[in-house]
Write a structure and sequence with these properties.
Length: about 475
Amino acid sequence: MSIFHSNFLRDISSLLNDADDFNVIINVGKYENIKEFRAHSVILRARCPYFKAALSNGWITKQNDMIMFTKPNITPTVFEMVLKYIYTGELDLTNQLGSILDLLVASDELLLEELFTHVQEYLIEKQTTWVQENFDLILPIAFKLTECKKLQDYCLDSICANPQPFITSKKFRSLDKNILYGLLKRDDFSVEEGVIWDYLIKWGIKQTPGLGKKNSDRIKWSNSNYQALKKTLNQFIPLIRFTEFSSSEYFDKIRPYKAIIPINIYDEIEEYYFKNVQPKTMNLTPRKKIIESNLIKPKLANIITNWIERKGKKDLLNKYKFELIYRSSQDGLNINTFRTKCNEQGQCLVLVKHSNSTKIYGGYNPLCFTNTIMQYYNTTESFIFSFENSKDIQNMKISRVNNNYTLHENYNDGFNFLNTLYMNGQQIYFDNHGYYDENISNVLNPYLGTNFIPEEIEVFKIITI
C-alpha cells in the first residue's frame, strides 16, 4: 500500500484560506472585537467533536444556504489558532502568552483533547518561569477546568516547592477559597505554621464583608465581626497544625483569635499548651519540609540548587530532594560515625554551624564520600559557601574551584574540600591553599586560618527527582 500523506495534508490545509466552497460562517468575539471566519462543515465535524454536535441538523441556523454560527466567548485571535489547528494540524505558540490561557479554555470547550493536552504541556515544559510568575492568573482557570489536572498539580507542586513568595504576596489575599483549601490540606506546603496562620487571617479579613482596609484593626471589631470572620475561615481552621506553634506564638497569634476557633478545637489547643496533652480530634501530621534542616530555611536551599545548576533566581527545589543522612547533635560528632552515615551516598550537601556565630558554612560534593585512604578526584562542580544566618538571602557567598582537583578523600578526615574546609577529629578547619577562586576569603571570613568545634553539622544526600 502506498501512502501520500504529505500532499494530502498540503491540499486539505489550502482549503483554510483559498477555497470558495465554504458553507459555514462563524462570527467570533463580541463588542468591538468581532471577526467573521469561513469554514467547511465537513472538516469541522470530522476534526472537532464540539462542531460535530453543534452542526447537526437540529442545531444549525441557515441563511442563504449558509450555516450561520456565533462564538462570542472566544476571541478572534484564539479562534484563528484553533481553526489553523483543525485544518492543518499546526500550532505556533510563539509570542502568544497573552492568549494562551484563553486557548486552553477554548480547546476544553471545543473538546479538542489533543490541543488541550498540548497547551498544558507547553506551559509546564516551555514556559516554567512565566507560569511561576503568574500563578494568580493560571490557578483560577486551571481549577475551573476539571480536565486540567496536570496543570493544577504542576502549579500546586511548584508553589509547595517554594511557597514563601506566594503566600506572602498581596495576590494571595484574593486567592479562590477552593485553591486555598487545596494548598492548606497538603503535607508538603512547607511554610512555618505561624506564617500560614498569619496569612490565613489576612486572607479571611479581605474575604469577609465588613472587614478589610476600613476595619482591619481587630481591637475595634464587634462580636458580629468576629463571627463573620469565623464563618469565612470555618473550613480552614481544621487544616491548621496548631501543635506546631511555639508557646509564644500561641500567646501572640492564636489566643487573640479565640472567638473564630470552634470551642472543641480551642479547648484541645489550650490543653496541649498548658498540660502537654496531645489533641484527640486534631491529628494532622506535621507538614513535610523541603529540607529537614535545623540550620537553613528552604529559601537558602533554593539558592544552593541554583548554584548547583549555575542558574539564577529560579525555583529549582521541585527538582531535588534533600535527604538527611547525618546530624552531629543526634549521631555524634566523630569521624567514624560521619563515614558510616555518609560514605557511598552520592552527591551530598554539608552544612556547618559555628558555635559562637550565626554564620552557616558549607560545601557541595557532586561525587560522593568514599572509603579511600587518600585520593584526589576530578570535578569542576564542587563549591564552598557561607550564609550570614539561617534566613538571610542578601549576604550569601560562594567560591568555586579554580582547577579540577577539588575533592580530597582521606579516611582520617570526615569531609574534606581539599584542605580548605574540612573536618578532622571534632574540629572544623579553614585554610586557603589557592584551590578555590578569589572569593574564598570572603566565604570563610572571619575564621580563615583557624579551627573550632562546630555547634552542628548536617549532611544531606541530594536526589534529583
